Amino acid sequence: MEKALFAGGCFWCMVQPFETMKGISKVVSGYTGGHVLNPTYEQVKAQETGHTEAVMVHYDEEELSYEDLLTIYWQQTDPTDAMGQFMDRGESYRPVIFYFNEAQRVKAEASRTQLQTSNDYDKPIVTTIEKAGPFYPAEEEHQQFYKKNPAAYAREQEQRRQWAESHPQEVCE
C-alpha cells in the first residue's frame, strides 16, 4: 500500500470523496505540519498549533494512481484560497499537497502546473506542495465523519454549497 497526504479545508469533507474510490483501503483524518506533539481537535481548530487538518489516504497503486488521487483532490478544493476553504477559515484549513517522496513531489508539481495553465481559474493557484512531516490521527469521533454523522455531514456540505454560491467571486466554477 502507498500513502498520500492532502489538506483541503475541514477533513470531514475530504474523506468521502477518496474513501469511496476503488483502490483506496483507508482514509484517516488527522493533523500535520505543526509544532505541538499529539494535538487535539480543539487546539488545531483554535489555530494554536500550526497544524493543518489533513487526510492520509492509503491506496493500491495497481488500482489507482497518484495522479488519480491528485484529480480527486483538485475537485474538492478551491486552489486559489491560501487561508482556508469555503467557510472554513484559517491556517488549519489551508490547501496543501504533502509528498512522501520525490516522485510524488514531481507529480504534484506537474499537476499544479497543468491546473495553472488550464485557465479554469481567474486567480492564481496558491495550493502549496510540501514535504510530509509527522501525521497525528484525529480523535475517533472525526474518523469517517460522513458515515457516523450523516445529518451533520449533509449540513456541512450544504453550508459549503451555500457559502460558494454567496461568494462567487472567490470560487471558480
Automatic annotation (TrEMBL):
Chain ranges of the Peptide methionine sulphoxide reductase MsrA domain: 3-154
Pfam family of the protein (one): PMSR
SUPFAM superfamilies referenced in this protein's UniProt entry, alphabetically: Peptide methionine sulfoxide reductase (SSF55068)
GO terms, molecular function: L-methionine:thioredoxin-disulfide S-oxidoreductase activity; peptide-methionine (S)-S-oxide reductase activity
Keyword DNA-binding (UniProt): no
Keywords: Oxidoreductase
Active-site residues annotated for this sequence: 10
InterPro entries according to UniProt: Met_Sox_Rdtase_MsrA_dom, Met_Sox_Rdtase_MsrA_sf
EC number: 1.8.4.11
Catalytic activity, as annotated: L-methionyl-[protein] + [thioredoxin]-disulfide + H2O = L-methionyl-(S)-S-oxide-[protein] + [thioredoxin]-dithiol; [thioredoxin]-disulfide + L-methionine + H2O = L-methionine (S)-S-oxide + [thioredoxin]-dithiol
Function: Has an important function as a repair enzyme for proteins that have been inactivated by oxidation. Catalyzes the reversible oxidation-reduction of methionine sulfoxide in proteins to methionine.
Family: Belongs to the MsrA Met sulfoxide reductase family.
Protein name, as recorded: Peptide methionine sulfoxide reductase MsrA
Phylogenetic placement of the source organism: Bacteria, Bacillati, Bacillota, Bacilli, Lactobacillales
